[in-house]
Amino acid sequence: ETHGISFRIQVSVKELLDKDVLLGLLFHLPVSYPSTLPDISVNSDQLTRAQCMDVKEKLLEQAKKHLSEPMVHDLILWIQQHLKGVIKQSATVCNEKTTLSEGTEDGIWMLLLHLDHMRAKAKYVKTVEKWASNLKLTGRLMFMGKIILILLQGDRSSIKEYLILQKTSKVDVDSSGKKCKEKMIRVLCETEVQSQHKRFQTFEVKEYSTLEELQKEFETAGLTTLFSEFVPPVLK
Fold this sequence. Notes:
This protein is α+β, with helices and mostly antiparallel strands. It has seven helices and ten strands. A five-stranded mixed sheet has the order 9-4-6-5-10, with helices on both faces. It has a three-stranded antiparallel sheet with strand order 1-2-3, sandwiched between helices. About 5% of the residues have low confidence.
């Protein structure tokens, strides 16, 4: 394997701020692990994005202390024991931030992907829907002839997590029917959502019979420029 492995662990931390806190930890272990640090993403419905980022930074600090030795189990034990202190420290730092910097933290991002094909379409679509739901991403999985596009909106950290899952999970099958990873994926665009862009409220799978229908989907969402810049080259 050339990409390593990714896996998600849900950790429950008891008696923090008079409530249980559920942490979703996504670890991506490169093939050179543990000589190389893992990529870590953190999400939680009970914590702010800034707090999740602080938890991630603390975990990476701890990971450096365990370089060249297996560390995931130690990192999970550490955060269970120290989350309360990390959150208290995060709250202190957060209170010192300006309103402007907090506004920047709350930006919504958008990702446009092009897939070459789906052999196991039903399973593949169900997997994409599950990932979008788990990461609270909205948007569209769009089919038009042989063209397959995925348009996502959400927190930047969730967008990054989705990309890791998309690139490292066995989501399709090869010509012999064996499970395989998606190697024919292109990131067409990754950018912050602007005021003229419409926010998608749900994630939907849609099929279009003509290019005009597909273009109208983008135009309705205020994404005319995105369509004209990135979609026509895919058709060639």
